[in-house]
Amino acid sequence: MTGSCLTHLECSACGAEHDAGEVNNLCASCGKPLLARYDLAAARRTLTRELLHARRNDLWRYAEVLPVRNKENIVSLGEGSTPLVRAARLGAELGCGTLYIKDEAGNPTQSFKARGMALAVSMAKELGVTKVAAPSAGNAAGALSAYAARAGIEAFLFMPRDTPRANIIETSFTGAHVRLVDGLITDCGAEVARGKEAEGWFDVSTLKEPYRVEGKKTLGYEIAEQLDWRLPDVIVYPTGGGTGLIGMWKAFAEMEELGWIGSERPRMISVQAEGCAPIVSAFAKGERFAQEFSNAATIASGLRVPKAIGDFLILDALRESGGTAIAVSDAELIQGARDIARTEGIFACPEGGACVPAVRRLVSEEAIKASESVVIFNTAAGVKYLDTYTQ
Ligand SMILES: Cc1ncc(COP(=O)(O)O)c(C=O)c1O
Ligand SMILES: [Zn+2]
User: Fold this and answer.
1) Atom of ligand 1 nearest to the CA of 247
2) pTM for the whole thing?
3) What's the CA gap between 57 and 227, in Å, rounded?
């Protein structure tokens, strides 16, 4: 056994409890995302800050606060434990004294989507699922296909036709059934919804499936440990579906209950592309739920999410933390990726690049002070975007 202290699933909106021993998607009463809950009092007896370093060097070191119960169901390619790189040269250019880049490019399939998909596929295996399906902006498909291959689970993936070629090719190499859709990720999601009953697919769309967020939350655990248990003042997250941001926010609450950190929190900041900024627009209007963004268009494929089912969870975290949401243009985010590469030697993805103009603007508006510590993300390897970068 893994030592998982998972107790049940709880609806993030109405609080209804669901049995974690069964296959679940959204809340049966209100249709909102379910979140995994743990017996954290039990977890803190064996999961301690001091003992972490003696554990395996991937995200499975947090076993007590992950859902997989049987070790044999862990489907792993070594995800997590990525570097938090101190970016002094980029920080100096941006007027930001203490800047870090959480560089997720070293994950299996070269993106942070591996974290979520390792958990989703492991849980699918634990619950006896044999076919999974998902819509994807690209990286999630690559990751799901890889873990499904390793688990011997059949994967059905739907991606917009203009998804970066690397994502489409990696997904077909790793054996998934790939369908390219003339439309956006929301249209791909509709294809999954249409086919799933007849085809017997388990829908692993982010936050419609309860465990991808559990993988993504390990970003928060890692950042806390890498900063010696003092969270940064600001976290700037390139936001599509928002799963990483929601996950980190959940991780901070869990770590407080584990006695690892206090009640302080970073200001959480969502960055989106101007051509697809539903969260920015809802934040500005003071709304809790975001409207679907019409005619969504950006070359940052991972940010091309016109409607996120976890919108209220993202917006709640931004507001509770005193953060904000900010939109940057495609030209700015590409330049941001170039800036990361030129100053720090990290060939970043366009989504990661988006963090740079966001920090620059927030510093100039004095919403970030030079004395504050800031974490940005390179969520995938730049090499996956050769077609985007050479357009
Ligand atoms: C490289 C990259 N960055 C960021 C995102 C957005 O992540 P999230 O859905 O957690 O907001 C994605 C999603 O596809 C992505 O592929
Ligand atoms: Zn509910």
Assistant:
1) 10
2) 0.98
3) 17
Q: Assess whether the C-beta atom of 239 lies below 6 angstroms from ligand 1.
A: yes
Which residue has the CA at smallest separation from atom 7 of ligand 1? 240
Per-residue pLDDT tens over the stretch 222-234: 999 999 999 999 9
- Whole-angstrom Cα distance, residue 26 to residue 8? 14
Q: Whose CA is nearest to atom 9 of ligand 1?
A: 241
Q: Where are the beta strands (DSSP E) in the chain?
A: 6-11, 17-18, 34-38, 84-86, 98-103, 131-135, 154-160, 177-181, 202-203, 234-238, 267-273, 324-328, 373-378
Torsion on CA atoms 267, 273, 279, 281, rounded to nearest 10? 110
Residues paired with residue 160 on neighbouring β-strands, in sequence order: 181
Q: Report CA(240)–ligand 1 centroid distance (Å).
A: 5
Cα–Cα separations (whole angstroms), residue 187 to 80, 102, 134, 156, 192:
30, 31, 11, 15, 9
Asked whether 166 lines ligand 1 (CB < 6 A), one says no
Q: Answer whether 164 contacts ligand 1 (Cβ < 6 A).
A: no
pLDDT at site 391: 74
147-178 per-position pLDDT tens digit? 999 999 999 999 999 999 999 999 999 999 99
Give CA angle at 140 (345, 169), nearest 5°.
Answer: 80
Rounded to an integer, what distance in angstroms lies between the CA atom of residue 71 and that of residue 69? 6
Cβ 139 under 6 angstroms from ligand 1: yes
Are 95 and 370 within 8 A, CB to CB?
Answer: yes
Ligand 1 within 6 A of 160 CB?
Answer: no
The secondary structure of residue 264, as a DSSP letter, is -
